[in-house]
Design goal:
Bound molecules: zinc ion
Number of strands: 10
Order of helices and strands: HEEHHHHHEEEEEEEE
Structural class: alpha+beta
Shape: elongated
Radius of gyration: 21 Å
Strand order of the largest sheet: 6-3-10
Helix content: 25-40%
Strand content: 15-25%
Largest sheet: 3 strands, antiparallel
Oligomer: single chain
Number of domains: 2
Amino acid sequence: MSLESDLTGRSGGMCELCGMQNARTACDVPPSADGSADTAILVCRTCLKGITGELVDNPHWRCLTEAVWSPHAPVQVTCYRLLQRLAAEPWARDTLEIVYLEPDVLAWAERSSEPGDLPEIIHRDAHGSVLAAGDTVTLIKDLVVKGGGFTAKRGTSVRGIALVPDNETQIEGRVNGQRIVILTEFTKKSA
Ligand SMILES: [Zn+2]
């Protein structure tokens, strides 16, 4: 039996998050997915997009308020993680407050993913060069530093940058002795 057929048997062919018929995609639930139905769920395209890519609050995701009560741990874990990503929304917070996960399931849900499990975030400068932590960049535009009371001048060299982990458009660096967030589009990597 393939993973897909195991999952289809479990779910009746419905997306295990939103209930859409004819869901066909088996989606591993990291980390340590072992390729079995115990660490995977069957999802539709819409749900897969939210899991693997950008997640924007819309009525579709209200399905999570029910799906999180699924008897299947990988479904619970996926719902829990999606709800956490949506936790800016009151309905998602409310759901997270009342939901109960067995301790081992909760530990799984909260275990951070292994590298490569999430869509990879790559920081690039204005010219598309890949930026790494510790690089030196040059500002290509005068930047008014909000709350800093100064302007970081075009041409300023910023050494030893840090990458903002969950946002590929932002890096951090020290200018005028202050640690500031800089948009990658206004930087050029120094050779
Ligand atoms: Zn779905």
